[in-house]
Known about the structure:
Structural class: alpha+beta
Helix content: 25-40%
Amino acid sequence: MIEPSLISGPITWPKDGSFWKSSFDRDGGHVNIFGAKEGHEMEALRALFPDGKADEMNFVLFSTSGVHGSYRTIEDVEESEELDKITFLIIQPRLLCMRYGNVTPKNAEDFAFLKRLRASSLEAVSTIGIEARP
Length: 134
């Protein structure tokens, strides 16, 4: 189920929603950090990016490691025979909001979705701050 506040309207995300929990234990999307709820990571990514396409307002970095994961790439996990996790960090720059988690792709469709999201994120980031030319 996609939370309506993730699509449009005021930034009134609950501190503990269907797929995300605020690290600061407070409501709202501005200047906040949300962790994906365990077991709902793929649903959370698909809710924010239903078609697997990022834009300059919502993009993802994968294999970010840090305190919440590993440096394993999508391809590393895809080639492995084990179900493993891929670390992600969603950046929403205009809101000063970040979301993070570890996703476990389970089938070819999941891997294709993550690769599409990664490619569109790289493309989106490359356009930030560049004036559009006719």
